[in-house]
Design goal:
Layout (H helix, E strand, L loop, with lengths): L7 H20 L2 E2 H8 L3 H13 L3 E5 L14 E5 L5 E7 L3 E8 L4 E8 L6 H15 L7 E8 L8 H14 L3 E5 H11 L9 E6 L3 E7 L2 E2 L31 H4 L1 H7 L5 H22 L3 E5 L7 H14 L2 H5 L2 E4 L6 H13 L26
Parallel strand pairs: 4-7, 7-8, 9-12, 12-13
Antiparallel strand pairs: 1-3, 2-3, 4-5, 5-6, 9-10, 10-11
Helix pairs in contact: 6-12, 9-10
Amino acid sequence: MPRSEPTALTLLRRTHEAQVVELLRRLGALSRAELGRRTGLSRTALSSITGSLIGRGVVVTAPAAPARGTRGRGRPVDLLRLNPAIGRCAGVDLGRGRVRAVVSNAAHEIIGSESRPYPRRTSWEERTAIALELLDTVLGGGSDGLEGIGIGLYGPVGPATERASAAVRLFGERYGVPVLVDNNTRLAALAEAVHGAGAGTRHSVYVRLSHGVGGGLVVDGRLLRGASGAAGEIGHVPADPRGPRCHCGGRGCLELYASLPAVEAAGGLGDDAAVERAGRLTGQVLAGLCNTLDPELIVVGGELAGCGERLLAPLEAELRARALPAVRQGLRITAERLGDSGGALGAIALVRQESPAPRLARQPYPAAAGTGCTGPVVSG
């Protein structure tokens, strides 16, 4: 007998199942209440859909960790997450001085992480060879169940960037999965928004004060790239239009005052005046950005973030003095949480957001081996 066509009700249910699966794939473990808010489904409809997904092994449950100070109070809330056995994603951060490779399962748990340094003079060909070898090691010699690979590169990364095209080709040929590439500082911004200091927020700005000054913008939970792939270049916003010439061609760029070399030239990280100036000028630039984007959170990373309040206090004072009252009212400022792992974790987040999702909702899977829902745990 010919197989009957699915009814409109069946198609609608499949759509809702796919919506739930995609949210868990992109954001990790969520409570039923949060799933209800994000999908708009009624409690009854959501219960039926999640019950079916749990029954087929696509989704598993795990108790949420108790909030600080609430030990023993009330009934623990169960979180829903994808079955860890469904698939894996890989993230590779090809930095200036080292490569890091990270692999996570469908439940957003890190199941492998390794890094390897190399001299800054190392050629691009040698760097990619090291990265491929390292990823082979983290994957355990096999790519079964691998959904996709995200790669972070330093420097400008756009659709026509030669290094980006080469990375897509080399990693795609090696592993036979979708490969996505972006700037590693922007990917760190995405990682902090999904797993780090900005977890739970939808609009955030990340600024990295390191050997250069870079940044990333997350708008409505997604990374903003811009028309040419240059969004987030905070370091090349003028802090002093009459200042010295920058290598980018502009004058008085923030990078000339708030990068690690600039601070070292002005007295070093131990010099309060040099650090204060870097924080103050960074706050000045961020104020204009915040008046444009109206973020919930600013995350500060890089070596200068290690100066703590000596940097953050003047940064925040300058920002709040210049930002619009409505913008600064609910704005938070904090240091990054993920450190050197941010680029690789952001590369994984990019794969989950933008690569084609596997057809999970209608597939049966074995029961998951574990029940912990702790989010990313960085090792290696």
